[in-house]
């Protein structure tokens, strides 16, 4: 099928998108699911954050969604969760100081601070079990989670404290260096797998028999242990198998989501904020050829129509990113989308923002594969071609929000002079 035919098919379903307040049909469709997956094409674009926040407010208020899960570390997100539920702090910025791991701008930004204030206000006066939570489902927090567990058990003592100390002592020689641990465990058999399995076993489902006022702390302890367990596996695996280390990470995210759903009960419903590469079904991209799975695929396989995935994209603008891992944050230009990509075709239809609500089993759209831009925390605008993922848009997402021109988000701390 040529580009003109693709554009005819897109034009049939594309509608002008004037923002989340007018996205009632999208809210109605997502509102039927238990998992509303809201993506982003970068980790540094303001509109992706503000539009997801506004959509999330509607899903919470109108459809009864019970918690938000994000592509962030458990310990730092749990500190923000405590603030949002009114248990700590006087301002969101205080809680956001816990996001000290690079890339700090991903969650420590003005857009999240404003959303956190809304969540705290919305939760005020509600019974504890009705307050909307905010949790991190990623696994990069190996060392932070170890420290959190030590603090948790130090206040309780007993055999669990000794188990936590054994795990800490096993990792301690690597001095917080994940690559050092990965090499030692993968190549020389000097891993800590037994220690972390023991730690997780001791905490498994303990929240179920914990007094109500301490249940979430008990859950937090278990999920810190789960993060340590899967991070250990992730860093051990990534030394030899890049694709499998990706799979370890996304399977961990699904494990955490399922734990959170069990914790919140039978009526639980979650809004998930992650990059498109995690929430958009991997089977509709070339990730499948590499043997990679992701959150969107795994949830669809397990829960079918209870999953509703919304992707995001842009034609041009600015973004916050770094030139290498750990590099200072910069405001960079996002060049016009590559000719023939999904973003460029949508721009060619007209410069207005657009919402695509994909019909089920559309023969024409389901065969359309085009490049779809994905910008990571490391970005090189001058070499854009490698940022496009071959994608069947209608199979990857249930809906797609296209914002023609976007701007960089607002980090709370600018780490360098803007480029």
From TrEMBL:
GO BP: any one term: response to antibiotic
InterPro entries to which the protein is assigned, alphabetical: Emycin_Estase, Hydrolase/PRTase-associated, UCP036794_erythomycin
Top-level taxon: Bacteria
Pfam families in the cross-refs: Erythro_esteras
CDD domains named among the record's database cross-references: Ere-like
PANTHER family listed in its UniProt record: ESTERASE, PUTATIVE (AFU_ORTHOLOGUE AFUA_1G05850)-RELATED
Protein name: Erythromycin esterase family protein
